Amino acid sequence: MSETLYLESDGIWCRTFPPAGDGGVAGRAALFLDRDGVVVEEVHFLHRPEDVRLVPGAASVVAEARQRGIAVVLTTNQSGIARGLFGWDAFAVTQSRLEALLAAEQAAFDMVLACPFHPDGNPPYRREHPCRKPQPGMLLRAAERLGLDLAASWVVGDRVRDLEAARAAGCAGGLHVLTGHGPGERADAILLDCPDFDVRLGESVAEAHALPLLQP
Ligand SMILES: [Mg+2]
How many domains does the chain have? Predict the structure, then answer.
């Protein structure tokens, strides 16, 4: 089976999905989600579809956000590609499995972005990149393409850099979770809280239901 690749000219994966409603998501807030250790259980350099397991409650949060007209955008650093551990075909089939598991629970993303670059990787991906979190490039690209209201948007992440990217993009705040690499990053995640960026603490992405973004 040959998977379609959604690679842009600068090496970033960017796939847009059909909107949940007729009107699209322009002007709406987004819920930005990290993938590994947030939406799916942490697997070291996940790249096999059979290893994809949803974090309990993830599909429910995704489905509820979309029902409320909030764009759901997955942004993921994939340095395993720069490091030569797997290729885009493996990323594509892994994403397809994730998307199928979500679809079985009536959940879907509006956009998926992945950044393959890493300064310790191999050419052509051996460098820093404005899309590699903690840089905000993937969030800014999603905002531009979908017309998102970044100031009303939130992120859920297990790594400090997930929240740093959202703060740099001008988002309202972030939920730091204890799945994935969360336990080792919590102390530093708390330090990102400031008047312009509201850091909330939770156990898992399931607690995103309580974010201001998802309140009536
Ligand atoms: Mg992660």
Answer: 1
Say how many Å lie between the CA of residue 23 and the centre of ligand 1: 31
Supply the DSSP string of 83-140, one letter for each residue: TTS--HHHHHHHHHHHHHHHHTTT---SEEEEE---TTS-TTS-S--TTSTTS-HHHH
Structural domain span for residue 77: 13-214
Determine contact, residues 72/31, Cβ cutoff 8 Å.
yes
Q: Is residue 7 part of a domain?
A: no
In a domain, 147, yes or no: yes
Q: What is the mean pLDDT of residues 178-195?
A: 98
Report how far ligand 1's centroid is from the alpha carbon of 104 (Å). 23
Please list the active-site residues. 34, 36
Burial class (CB in 10 A: 0-12, 13-18, 19+), 163: buried
Q: Distance, CA 181 to ligand 1 centroid (Å)? A: 7
Indicate which CATH number applies to the domain containing 136.
3.40.50.1000
- pTM for the whole thing? 0.97
Half-sphere exposure at residue 57, Cβ-oriented, CA atoms within 13 angstroms = 12
Q: Within a domain: residue 65?
A: yes
How many whole angstroms separate alpha carbon 197 and alpha carbon 174?
7
CA of 158 relative to ligand 1 center, distance in Å: 5
pLDDT value, residue 22: 75
